[in-house]
Design goal:
The structure is a homotetramer. Chain A is mostly helical. Helix content of chain A is about 75%, strand content about 0%. Chain A is elongated, with a radius of gyration of 20 Å. The first copy, chain A, starts with 16 loop residues before the first helix and ends with a helix. Chains in contact: A-B, C-D. Chains A and B meet through helix 6, helix 7, helix 8 and helix 9 of A and helix 6, helix 7, helix 8 and helix 9 of B. The structure holds a DNA duplex (31 and 31 nucleotides). Chains A, B, C, D: This is TetR/AcrR family transcriptional regulator.
DNA sequence: ATATAACCGAGACGGTACGTCAGGTCTTTGA
DNA sequence: TCAAAGACCTGACGTACCGTCTCGGTTATAT
């Protein structure tokens, strides 16, 4: 996850593979109990049964560690085929909201995003590990909708890319804002209202574009 | 701003009014230069030409201070009448994006939101100082649109409130996500695309509701 | 002991006087239990009931702290008047040996001397706090011996100073070597033998000089 | 030097003999550059082109290693026959002072002596490798002086042994104190003064004893 | 005018976490 | 079996910031 083994090193004791998993799990556990700002790397090391130096050998700091720990949470997202675009969106938004309801995601995600405003490398890491990784859901949803005839096929590639980005910003932004800032549950009712607006908007905007 | 002076205190030296402003300004300055995580209260006190104790006498900690410092930034938002609902939204969204482009807002806002996931009182403070305070823009925009006949009038009060919240989550969430997570500029092109989708969605959803 | 209050500081909370004494006592205690190399400043701070920062605010490091802690041990040396030069020397050498027999002196003194071989400032501190401070004993002993007619009066000042230094090197060096390197007790028998040689040597060398 | 290989080991790869010399030389080099307290075994291993494990296989720790590295320095001492007891002593004292002027001796010797105050085994190692090894010089000097008639022959064996120890403590102690504590050069003038006192003291004390 | 009371600056205080470093041990590949 | 490499755990390092406290001193109102 964190580094693609730049030098394969033929000699010396190899790094423990188990340590990585233990550290990430311990990080999530600490996020749940303490939140991001009270999470300390010493504590994570202790929970993982690992020395602090081992932790620093693999991650350069708290932010990078938390990104990796949180990123794993979002990999369980998937887009089940529910028959219509609206239903598909509702399904994935509910999953997304469920993940954001977990304290390790809430506290960790926003904190690293905040940090990333002053750290270009961190922003890239977040984008690579979390954001771009989940855009697959938008792409897949659109393909299905196009196959069903709910949305018109793509004509312009850069236009297509911009639309994916826009949808992602709207969906992810709205859900995050609902869950973290408004601090209201993104329950079925809210998700249905939101999806209604979104699908209608997409359809109208799509028709505008092609017409 | 911070607390409504529970006991008015008739005697003793009154608190310096100038100090409050100096501290908030120093806080924003420090946010620009250092970002949230490297901002220290000692440093803010020094910048403001004030003792640390003076600072702690007025704010209980870093989070509360930053909320107040950031909240002032959003008070300059206004909704100029541009003739149509879409143009009004575009105008306010551009203003919002301009504020979010400033480093003191970026770094500070997300950080306190992250902290608020584990601090109920802080969340309330954010809501009172920032979120609810700006919902006026949504309310005013809707009134104008209804007066122009772009949106149907309200019938159900709780339904109305839910819609305001939804719109706020969508607008604020999308812009924040665009600016901070995607880290792309919310320029006129993006804002136009976003507004198109939003207005179409609202119109369609509104028609659904009244029909 | 450590600093002669360069700036009397009119403002701010004054430093606790009790802390200094507690820290030096704790340092000696730790020297007894752990020895120099296993003594840690964290441990000293804990023993003294003081924060580590308080300790670092007053001493720049382990070496300086130990010098001050050990220096106090030697202040109890005195030169009782026993009637003859030889008896006076025996008396003070026995006292010196008694101090060197204490573990806090043994371990601490040699360690800081070793460190001082690479630290000019530390060497000066040792000289000022310990060595020069105890040369008073040599001076006083010589005065008495001269008053009794056991030694001839001084004629050349720089010669006089060199002689004091030589005697100090011989006395301190021999006792330290006996106690720490040879690790044999500097008991009455050894002290008598040593004093015999020294007094005879001084008398003969003195006679050489004046004759 | 360090241990007499208790089991000669008939099988497996034999230990590199060159490594021992390289390690001791690297240790002295590191003592010169860094001093005892900043010398690290990792660094010594790197300098010697050897793995840390190889080093630990041969020495149990830093102290033992430094004792062996320093001990070799003193083996070059010898007692040239200059015709009189005083001249012989002057010669060897000047050699001793020259060795102590070298940084690897200064820093290393005192440090291990300091450590030895809390480590019986280390004290024995120092005594065996350094102290007792150089007492040969005192013995040889006395023999010559007796042959020349400068000192009376021995009568009592234990008395003889005590005298050798006393002389060694006085000579070694004074020179060490002069060089390391007083930090003044043990130049020819100082050595002459010291020798004058010592020889006169020995002669007078010896006459006392036999008379 | 003179208490009284809360304010102010400065800075020391007891803590906690930081990120680094050295000490020794263990685990790998290779000679 | 030893050697080299390097990851491992432990624990101390010296620094920085936290939030509290103790000073000497300054403004206000309330007598």
């Amino acid at each position: 996850m964190q580094s693609s083994t730049p030098a394969p090193r033929a000699t010396g004791r190899p790094r423990s593979a188990a340590a990585d998993a233990a550290i990430l799990a311990a990080t999530r556990e600490a996020l749940v109990e303490l939140g991001w700002s009270k999470l300390t790397l010493s504590d994570v090391a202790t929970r993982a049964g690992v020395a602090k130096t081992t932790l620093y050998r693999r991650w350069s700091g708290k932010n990078e560690l938390v990104v990796d720990a949180v990123a794993e949470l979002f990999d369980e997202l998937e887009l089940p085929d529910r028959g219509t675009l609206g239903a598909d969106i509702e399904g994935v938004v509910l999953q997304f909201a469920a993940i954001l309801a977990r304290p390790e995601a809430k506290s960790g995600l926003m904190a690293v995003v905040a940090e990333s405003t002053r750290d270009e490398a961190l922003r890239e890491r977040i984008r690579a590990s979390i954001v771009d990784r989940q855009k697959r859901l938008v792409l897949e949803g659109r393909s299905r909708a196009q196959a069903r005839g709910e949305l018109p096929p793509e004509t312009d590639e850069s236009e297509s890319s911009r639309t994916v980005d826009l949808i992602f910003d709207v969906v992810a932004g709205a859900v995050v804002h609902r869950c973290l800032v408004s601090a209201e549950p993104a329950d079925e009712e809210w998700v249905r209202s939101f999806t209604t607006v979104l699908v209608a908007g997409l359809a109208a905007a799509g028709n505008d574009r092609v017409s």
